[in-house]
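Let us practice reading a record.
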Amino acid sequence: MKIGEIYKQEYFKDIDETEIAHRLVRVIGFDKYEVFYESKSYDNKWFFSGNLRRKIYFYRMAADRFNSKMELFDFLELTEHEYEYFRPDLPMRFGRTKSVSWESITTEKIDALPKQFLNEKVNLNKFVLVPFGPNGGIKKSQLIEGDKNLTFLEIIKSASTIQNPLNGIIDKGIGFHRLGCEKGFPSYYIGEYLDKAGTLDE
């Protein structure tokens, strides 16, 4: 699989599943677990690429399911602007550990995490963090930034001040999972060790 590959998917147009149609999707990110993609809108334009400044949440599908449902159709390389916006070079998730949870996290517990883990960096000095509320809904996002690429330690401390007051995550570890783009920057939601979509099992 390559970034920019276009796949064709069959689907039923009616609830009786008698009329088959096709849609095209374009890969904008992937790893061994998950595929991010965009599809064409009603005016035959790529839905995300048509407006690179708006807030978008990537379409996603488990990699195994994507490979079984999709047929390779064509290829359209990402433009320079698309690449800068989608940032397929970034990890789809990072900072995952079962050692702490957002409910009980404290500065002392963060500092007690392995130094090698805390000192790891993401190739970003500015991105959007999206918290969740107690009923699972997305809450107001916040832009975090630094003078240079941010470490897990810096990101986790910022996230704890954003997420803790909302009490939206139970005791199942912590993690950051790619959501899409917002304000011209990559966005990640503040999550647990496993993702909300149920793609991960480890």
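A brief commentary: The chain has a mean pLDDT of 87.
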